Amino acid sequence: MDRTQQLQRLTDAELDFLIIGGGASGAGALLDAATRGYKVGLVDRQDFMSGTSSRSTKLVHGGVRYLEQAVKTLDWSMLQLVHEALRERQTMINMAPHLAQPISMVTPLKSRWQWPYLRTGLGMYDALAGKRSIGKTTTISEAQLQASCPALKQNFPIAVKYWDGQFDDARFGIAMLRTAVNKGGLALNHCNILSIKRNQHGYRVSLQERFSEKKFALQCKGIINCTGPWTDEIREQVRPDRHGIMKTSGGAHIVVSPKRVPLQHAVLIPKTEDGRVLFMIPWYQQILIGTTDTLDPLSDNPQASDDDIKYLISEANKWLQQPINEKDVLATFKGLRPLLDDLSSSTAKISRDHQILVEDRMLTLTGGKWTTWRSMAEDALNQAAKMVDLPAMPCITDTLKLVGATDPNTAPIPDIDTDISNHLRQRYGSEAELVLQAGSHKRLFEHYPWIEAEFAWAMEKEAAVTPEDILERRLRMNTVDSKAYMEALNILS
Ligand SMILES: Cc1cc2nc3c(=O)[nH]c(=O)nc-3n(C[C@H](O)[C@H](O)[C@H](O)COP(=O)(O)OP(=O)(O)OC[C@H]3O[C@@H](n4cnc5c(N)ncnc54)[C@H](O)[C@@H]3O)c2cc1C
């Protein structure tokens, strides 16, 4: 993705749709529109995936928790949502198997009496996945649990093991954008919108690229607003009299070493004492522990607070054999859930479903979750085509492969260390060899597999501009080890 070329092609472009926001929703809409053959461009005022979409728990999931809520409240629409997400889980794994894979999840049970309840629930979860199931729910014994998850306390007579998916959220999103650009879509990060003016053909939009400060304009028939937590800002920029529809709920994670929390499976604690879900998930070299769920103000770079960190440590310690403390925290990250405001006071109960709002040739796509980006985009583009009177074109994203799509277990790359080979294959898939050709194979840190060539690749092929773009959303360094991240940031800045 050559930024100079993208800027040139967006200048004075006449588009069917301009998508604002390059997170999961915007990238999904771009990929859907480009593969249907529409003329489409996307801009983000920051880096692609710098909002919520790089700060998720990184699960590709149907939502076991929503299934429980659906059954308890006999909510048919929520059940359909779980069914849809389970279908999309398999689609994402097929689309980029190097970036999204099945992960085994374990829930330890304090009493054998809890098993029939969970068995019924997870049996339903498996049944809803149907032929797209990625593994059957089973029980594991006390001894098996102790062997596979020695981090946990040893007083669980039984545990239940089920399957969900896991992915690299930011890299998946960037692969979606690159695939869309290969199909004729346009995408530019670090590009501010100066004004949006309604005219008889749709909208005239004035923009400015952040680094060159080049100002330009384009014409589009319709706008697709995918700005997540910032949804209301764009709606109000077009029409200041519009009412806000969004609330934001903050979700923090802490990252610890598997030496301190050794786990072979991800652990799901369905209910903490205050009714939240707690995850402990192996991800790349570390263990992610999350998440909080609190109403938080809008912020471009939300950070886990001391209270968030204390809360996560204290909840995790209720389940851990060897308690962890602040010194064990290698990194933290926090994202804002874009939630539709239904005037409920508890964020856990606000709908996680997506919503589409059509207002005067501007379609707002918001809510939902990462896992359902594809069906959200399909729904949005069906409605967007009607909004601007374009012929309906079929959606083809459910059989698409993203750039680099390959089995991560394909043959190791010869003549480099095994950990570097695995690292490159998992992140770049079939493009791993090309990454090696982009620069030096020297390690950035002795004990991590990042290599220098990844910097050049991130800038040349993945539209990274700033050190943060490279380190946070291409190399994912801040999510693995904040000390290493700060060191690398100092070198690059
Ligand atoms: C803590 C947490 C954990 C989660 N875990 C999971 C999970 O495990 N699995 C799952 O499926 N879902 C999960 N989700 C939900 C999922 O991450 C979100 O639903 C999804 O990322 C939202 O994507 P988005 O594109 O709508 O918003 P964002 O990713 O926030 O993207 C919005 C983009 O718009 C841009 N933008 C804003 N204003 C402007 C403007 N004026 N001009 C141009 N660009 C603009 C921003 O820079 C940003 O890049 C989680 C969410 C949170 C917060």
Top keywords for this entry?
single chain, 493 residues, alpha+beta, FAD/NAD(P)-binding domain, D-Amino Acid Oxidase, Chain A, domain 2, 4 domains, 10-stranded mixed β-sheet, 8-stranded mixed β-sheet, 34% helix, 24% strand, globular, binds flavin-adenine dinucleotide
How would you characterize the overall build of this protein?
There is one protein chain. By secondary structure, the chain is of the alpha+beta class. 34% of the residues lie in helices and 24% in strands. The protein has helices at residues 3-10, 24-36, 64-72, 76-95, 115-129, 142-148, 169-182, 231-238, 306-317, 373-387, 418-428, 432-437, 453-461, 467-474, 482-492, and strands at 14-20, 40-43, 59-60, 100-109, 138-141, 158-167, 186-188, 191-199, 202-209, 215-225, 246-256, 266-269, 278-283, 286-290, 294-295, 331-340, 354-359, 362-367. The strands form two sheets. Strands 3, 4, 5, 6, 11, 12, 13, 14, 15 and 16 form a ten-stranded mixed sheet that branches. β8 and β9 form a beta hairpin. α3 (64-72) packs antiparallel against α4 (76-95) and α13 packs across α14. The longest helix has 20 residues, at 76-95. The radius of gyration is 22 Å and the shape is globular. The model is unreliable at 343-351 (pLDDT under 50). Flavin-adenine dinucleotide binds next to α2, α8 and β16.
